[in-house]
């Protein structure tokens, strides 16, 4: 058994040593997720203990983070727009700046009651099309990706977040996918040159 405040200190020190900038913030995030508690709870639970198995989980999360694995992959989730999306390393982690795509559609089509057909090319976690169809409640949409594993993640998010009949995901290549029947097409294409991938920070 270990006190939360002690775990916070261990995590912060270990992550700082590995050059993680927001070491305290990230340690808190790990603990909050393990204990399934909020920020407020964390402040008021400074005398609460992590069980042995919770502390083991915490240590395994720290080890992964120390090897630069993104925290979203460790926790299998990332907030995007109004929801928390399941992610794993088969998909890009939804990025806050991609929310501009949702904002742009909302600005261009302010009437959310319209019945539209959306296509999301390179859907990844499905974050764009799921968020859009939650805004446009009478519309339908298709998300496509050429990665089987990404489609599995998108389906999982559909089941967790919306599970609606208006949305389907398809394994397809966007260079040959017919888009003529759609009213709105969104796409956040791969933007990293394959040759640059090895030079990027893992997170
Ligand atoms: C930058 S990610 C965007 C993921 C998601 N839409 C988002 O905004 O977080 C690009 C996605 O395009 C997919 N992709 C790449 N080439 C593709 C192709 N030719 N056809 C379909 N999907 C493709 C990748 O598998 C990846 O999931």
Automatic annotation (TrEMBL):
Gene3D superfamilies: DNA helicase RuvA subunit, C-terminal domain, Vaccinia Virus protein VP39. Its EC number is 2.1.1.297. Keywords: Methyltransferase, S-adenosyl-L-methionine, Transferase. Residues 6-75 form the Release factor glutamine methyltransferase N-terminal domain. It catalyses: L-glutaminyl-[peptide chain release factor] + S-adenosyl-L-methionine = N(5)-methyl-L-glutaminyl-[peptide chain release factor] + S-adenosyl-L-homocysteine + H(+). GO terms for cellular component: mitochondrion. The keyword ATP-binding does not apply. GO terms for molecular function: nucleic acid binding; peptide chain release factor N(5)-glutamine methyltransferase activity. One of its GO terms (biological process) is methylation. Residues 107-197 form the Methyltransferase small domain. PANTHER family: HEMK METHYLTRANSFERASE (PTHR18895), MTRF1L RELEASE FACTOR GLUTAMINE METHYLTRANSFERASE (PTHR18895:SF74). This is peptide chain release factor N(5)-glutamine methyltransferase.
């Amino acid at each position: 058994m270990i006190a939360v405040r002690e775990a916070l200190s261990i995590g912060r020190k270990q992550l700082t040593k590995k050059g993680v900038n927001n070491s305290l913030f990230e340690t808190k995030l790990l603990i909050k997720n393990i204990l399934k508690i909020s920020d407020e709870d964390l402040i008021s639970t400074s005398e609460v203990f992590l069980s042995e198995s919770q502390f083991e989980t915490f240590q395994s999360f720290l080890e992964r983070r120390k090897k630069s694995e993104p925290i979203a992959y460790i926790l299998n989730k990332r907030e995007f727009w109004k929801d928390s999306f399941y992610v794993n390393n088969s998909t890009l982690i939804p990025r806050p700046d991609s929310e501009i795509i949702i904002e742009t559609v909302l600005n261009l089509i302010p009437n959310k009651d319209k019945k539209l057909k959306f296509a999301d090319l390179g859907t990844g976690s499905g974050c764009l099309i799921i968020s859009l169809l939650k805004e446009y409640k009478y519309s339908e949409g298709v998300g496509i990706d050429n990665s089987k594993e990404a489609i599995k993640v998108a389906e999982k998010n559909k089941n967790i977040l919306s599970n609606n009949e208006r949305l389907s995901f398809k394994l397809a290549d966007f260079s040959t996918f017919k888009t003529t029947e759609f009213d709105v097409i969104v796409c956040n294409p791969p933007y990293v040159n394959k040759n640059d991938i090895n030079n990027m920070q893992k997170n």
